[in-house]
Amino acid sequence: MGLIMREAGKTAANAVSELREAIDFLRYYGSEALAKLQGAEGLGAVVCISPWNFPLAIFMGQVSAALVAGNTVLAKPAEETPLIACEAVRLLHEAGVPKDALQFLPGDGAIGAALAAAPECSAVMFTGSTEVARLINATLAKRLSADGRPIPLIAETGGQNAMIVDSSALAEQVVGDVIASAFDSAGQRCSALRVLCLQEDVADRILAMLKGAMRELRVGNTSRLATDIGPIISDEAKRAIGTHVETMRGKGFKVDASPLGEEALNGSFVAPTIIELDAAKSLGREVFGPVLHVLRYRRDEIDALIDGINGTGYGLTFGLHTRLDETIEHVTTRVKAGNLYVNRNTIGAVVGVQPFGGRGLSGTGPKAGGPLYLHRLVRNSEPRLPRDEVELIGPVGERNLYALHPRGRILCLAKTEGGLAEQKRLVAETGNQAVVAVEKGPFAGALLEAEGEELRAQLETLASLPGPIVLAQAKPYNPAWLMEEQSISVNTTAAGGNANLMTIG
User: Fold this and answer.
1) What domain range is 232 assigned to?
2) Catalytic residue among 190, 276, 398, 484
3) Cβ-Cβ contacts under 8 Å for 79 (sequence gap 6 or more)
4) Of these residues, 18, 21, 32, 156, which one is catalytic?
5) Full-prediction pTM beyond 0.85?
6) In a domain? residue 262
């Protein structure tokens, strides 16, 4: 914990959570492998490129998943946080993981790029920016695996995460959940709330409460238990956030920032900030820090608001606060995001309970800490797909649902009539839409009837397309990769209690 706090600027509470999550990953993937991967064959050498914002949990999640699936691992942590990763590897070696099965390779982005480009690389697991994920995908598209297939990439990238709050929501609960979602970990979470959408009838009251609560947050050295928010990861990141805030101020948007205390005047600290916008299009790209953007909307504009959120192309986390069951049903069926949270905060996904990962520009899937993840790291493994929504076991007072949905538009490239018929049949059976022309993108996936140089050329073409990374398959096709996972976590106590408890006899 001390190493995480010093190297990554985590508070003690965040360090505890991170350590627990790392242990959860070890236990979950271990049990999943025993239950589902008996007799499966690993891919080979897997490159794990992990981020600085969860330098132990995500690092351990990637490494443990690759190892239990029967692969050797080349672990490249973020250049900002190599020490905690080094300690994690030391502990794994001490626990019995062979040193030649797990290699530690610290360094900057050039190391990661070289590892992804190495001909021995059999798969890449990456958490970071969408731009870097696209570069890795383009690198992998230049060659095929040893058995002549596309090289797997599991990428979890950023999001422009939104929360909608209607006039029926409990204001005090909204404030607590927004403060946690937007400012915990100094906003340096992939799942952090970036855009708060307030129904105009309650916007003034909730904003006043939010600003008051925000000013109570203490920014400073995380070695002190009283500290709520620690530093930004680097001076460069701090400057980028500051530039964004000043740009928005210069455009005439109202900016409220908490005053920094004396202990935070030096170092890479950023004050919690709220920026009031007039339209979603004013937002631009994701700002990775304690900056919350606020939009007002009218009740009759909610569908247009959801369309605007979906239209960003990102789909990682989404929050909703309402006491109306009709609104919950309407909004959650229309929002395109990987993790949905109702009447609670949008951070802290629990391994095995709220599998984490996005869609579109937010990642390729499968979800970390979910039932499909390990199957992407072995050869020719076809997981059982649930036909209906499944309720996962979690804490009392929460209802956690897991479901599979069609990915969307699937590109079908075939050389024969029979091959095209097979592709279209599989696309139809999984509820997707078949498209047969490359120029009619974007695509959520691709089925390719090709081999050798022809297959490689097709993969390069797909990697060069704008928009989301295309999850491409060559025969034999796996229906699981034509589906998208979605997790919905509902705080049942917010509606007056957990009705499920009444059925326990």
Assistant:
1) 162-360
2) 190
3) 52, 106, 107, 108, 109
4) 156
5) yes
6) yes
